[in-house]
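Reminder to self: tokens first, then the designed residues, so the page reads top to bottom the way the pipeline ran.
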């Protein structure tokens, strides 16, 4: 039986972190020219116009109210030279920051690595999860990433080709105090309530096997781990601070997806955004972020669809920043679906 090791999963997740960083890097370079030569602003409290939001004020700024989104050009100003509490989107953390430019304190991007990925080494940056891997092997789709919060998640996987004559699937989860299997006729399964839940901080092996007419099985293995309790409590504390700001549903979803993404909780990040889309939001940021998350977990077809909608809503709202991000993401998702070729530099 094929077993996917933890190191392999980390490598794949790192590849997608590099990939999505390419989106940020393109935008950084495109906005660089307009930022040069500008005088230092005190703050943007009353300024209008599109900008790239990079953080949200939690407390402590004498000009920017709690809950205010800030751009990378903004400056923090605390009372009595103390600190300002800020949720930094890039890190997904609430930080205590000194007075000064937010982009010098909150941004932690690796532009050089992203530029190498998008310009020279695309063939090693993109990896697609799903039928493109092997249409004859069921591939786990949800949870979207190995690290999760829910100890009883919904499991779903890609179907095998009809030509293979699959008669159903067998789902297995094995690990300390958890060892069960179940026959399934569909391509999804809610974790059985009668089975013991997965424990925090323990790696479990998940096997999805296709039952074939000739009694042969085609296996596919993945791993899952519920976030360790202490780390989950810290993440919950950050979320509660943000929830206390009484933000709009869309703004709260944006912040939560940044927090979850920073902790590699991609399943939770995706579900938060999907809820807002089900609520019929027309906010381009929601669609674009969902495209980003889908791209990171190896689902470029789903990402492309969300980027296209984000582009439409960005144009309707005249949001040039989100438009540029969505267009860049759409191009990356298209590139990731191209047939894999040998990189000439690697010959």
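Designed residues (347 positions):
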């Amino acid at each position: 039986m094929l077993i996917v090791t933890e190191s392999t999963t980390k490598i794949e997740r790192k590849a997608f972190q590099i990939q999505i960083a390419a989106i940020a890097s393109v935008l950084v370079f495109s906005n660089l020219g307009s930022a040069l030569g500008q005088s230092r602003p005190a703050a943007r409290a009353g300024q209008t116009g599109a900008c790239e939001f990079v953080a949200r004020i939690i407390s402590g700024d004498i000009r920017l109210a709690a809950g205010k989104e800030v751009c990378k050009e903004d400056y923090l100003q605390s009372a009595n030279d103390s600190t300002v509490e800020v949720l930094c989107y890039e890190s997904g953390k609430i930080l205590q920051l000194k007075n000064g430019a937010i982009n010098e304190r909150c941004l932690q991007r690796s532009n050089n690595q992203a530029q190498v990925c998008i310009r020279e080494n695309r063939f090693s940056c993109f990896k697609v999860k799903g039928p493109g891997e092997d249409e004859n092997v069921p591939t786990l789709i949800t949870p979207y990433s190995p690290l999760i919060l829910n100890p009883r998640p919904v499991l779903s996987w890609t179907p095998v080709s009809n030509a293979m004559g699959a008669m159903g699937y067998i789902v297995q989860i094995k690990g300390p105090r958890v060892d069960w299997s179940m026959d399934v006729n569909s391509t999804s399964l809610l974790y059985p309530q009668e089975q013991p839940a997965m424990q925090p901080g323990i790696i479990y092996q998940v096997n999805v096997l296709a039952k074939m007419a000739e009694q042969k099985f085609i296996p596919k293995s993945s791993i899952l781990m519920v976030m360790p309790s202490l780390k989950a409590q810290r993440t919950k504390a950050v979320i509660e601070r943000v929830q206390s700001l009484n933000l709009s549903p869309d703004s709260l979803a944006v912040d939560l997806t940044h927090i979850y993404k920073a902790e590699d909780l991609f399943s939770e990040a995706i579900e938060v955004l999907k809820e807002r889309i089900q609520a019929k939001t027309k906010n381009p940021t929601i669609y674009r972020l969902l495209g980003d998350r889908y791209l990171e977990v190896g689902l470029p077809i789903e990402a492309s669809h969300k980027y296209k909608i984000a582009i439409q809503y960005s144009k309707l709202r005249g949001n040039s920043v989100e438009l540029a991000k969505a267009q860049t993401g759409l191009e990356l998702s298209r590139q990731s679906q191209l047939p894999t070729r040998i990189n000439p530099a690697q010959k």
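The chain is about 35% helix and 20% strand.
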